[in-house]
Design a protein that fits this description.
mainly beta, 43 strands, 11% helix
């Protein structure tokens, strides 16, 4: 696990440290479209696929975004002293400055942040919202339906969560703003002084010393969250208060029956708690995995002797080291990685496949569970490629292009979670090419 994550961190940080390149190439998230940014006589020239080249005084590489289906793209450009957002070759109004850009899930709407006369606005399809002193980077988000929009802003020293254009009550700070899957509910963590509380649909819950994460109930109308009071951690859900623990993480509602599942640490070690029932204690437990549509779930637990693979409450395998358990959406298939000496082996419901190395966190089922895929390669070099079960074709992996994807998602910096998300998306896109469900456009 360490060797893979170190490799990822080095690749992304190296890219981030480089200056602006004279020629920069990238791919849309599904890898169906390729674009380039080329320095020509001091101007930045943009080109998508084999289309028309358009040149500007400057282009923000970190601001380039695509819709989920790659049919639309947008980017901030500088012409003279002003900035504009260009969508599919059509420039928008001139702004004093621009920030992050976000497409709605369906790609119909585009939202971005813009500076006008010293105040910041959120612009949606050319229409500017209320002015604020500043906007909190990384909070601009559409709900999964694409009909609602939220972000965090500052007026003076007060932070507000703006939901559907309406600012909420003033806070000292806000964090973790998100919508439920059906888009009907919205939550965030608000801070007043040194106390925090979870806000759900505008109603603040009880205050705590800290709240690290929360999960929506399947209906979206309620939440469970991990809260600290003093030196103890609790899980607060509806009328339940589970604990105390030394640590709580990986809260999730099981798709099959809506039971709350999380990992808790106490003096004895770590355990999985499901539906209020504590499982056996181990030295460490990986985040649980679930089938999105089926009933299967599981996790990998570690002690000083071995790693145990647990499916549906039953230990099905044991190795010196195992991890990265993944389950297909319907629950019919499962796979995980076993490390044996200097090699990695993908163990799955249909057999085993030995590889030199599997980058931890990238193993996943693609094409609705027809096959597993991962990022694999040679641990002694930088020869990495995407591997799909049952296929001999290998799609090469590009550090620089992947780094660009991660930077465009997160702005100027990339943390471990963002790097892993970018890696998994890369594997999924390249797997589509191998399986013949995508068109490279290259």
């Amino acid at each position: 696990m360490t060797r893979a994550l170190v490799c990822v961190a080095l690749g992304l940080s190296t890219f981030a440290a480089c200056g602006a390149p004279t020629a920069w190439h990238g791919l849309s998230p599904d890898h169906r479209r390729a674009f380039s940014v080329v320095d020509s006589d001091g101007r930045a020239c943009m080109r998508l696929d084999d289309g028309e080249t358009r040149c500007y005084d400057g282009v923000s590489l970190a601001g380039i975004v695509f819709s989920a289906d790659s049919r639309s793209w947008a980017y901030p450009v500088q012409n003279g002293s002003g900035w504009m957002v260009v969508r599919d070759g059509r420039p928008g109004p001139v702004e004093d400055g621009t920030g992050e850009l976000v497409f709605s899930p369906g790609g119909d709407a585009l939202a971005y942040t813009a500076l006008r006369e010293g105040r910041w606005h959120v612009v949606v399809d050319g229409v500017a919202g209320e002015p604020y002193d500043s906007l909190l980077a990384g909070t601009l988000t559409f709900d999964p339906t694409g009909r609602r929009l939220a972000y965090a802003a500052f007026r003076g020293n007060w932070a507000v969560a703006v939901i559907d254009g309406i600012p909420g009550p003033p806070m000292d700070g806000t964090a973790r703003l998100s919508f439920s899957e059906d888009g009907r509910h919205v939550a965030y963590v608000g801070r007043r002084g040194d106390r925090v509380a979870l806000s759900l649909d505008g109603t603040l819950g009880p205050s705590h010393d800290a709240i690290t994460e929360y999960a929506f109930e399947p209906s979206g109308a309620g939440t469970a969250y991990a809260a600290a009071d003093g030196e103890s951690w609790w899980v607060v859900a509806a009328d339940q208060r589970l604990g105390p623990y030394r640590e709580v993480r990986d809260l999730a509602y099981r798709p099959s029956d809506g039971r709350l599942v999380f990992v808790a640490r106490d003096r004895e070690g770590e355990r999985v708690v499901a539906g209020g029932q504590s499982g056996p204690v181990f030295e460490a437990v990986d985040p649980p995995a679930f089938s999105a549509l089926g009933t299967r779930w599981g996790y990998v637990a570690h002690d000083s002797v071995a790693s145990l693979v647990v499916l549906d409450g039953r230990v099905i395998d044991s190795h010196a080291w195992a991890g990265d358990l993944t389950i297909s959406p319907d629950g019919e298939r499962w796979a995980y990685v076993v490390r044996t000496g200097d090699a990695d082996v993908v163990v799955h419901d249909r057999g085993v496949d030995a590889l030199d190395m599997v980058v931890y966190g990238t193993l996943q089922f693609v094409r609705e569970g027809d096959a597993w895929a991962c990022l694999a390669g040679d641990p002694d070099g930088r020869d990495l490629y995407v591997r799909v079960e049952g296929r001999t074709e290998r799609r090469p992996f590009s550090w620089s292009e992947l780094a660009g994807v991660a930077r465009r998602r997160s702005g100027s910096s990339v943390d471990g979670a963002e790097a892993l998300e970018a890696l998994r998306a890369w594997v999924a896109a390249e797997s589509d090419m191998i399986l013949g469900t995508g068109d490279t456009g290259r």
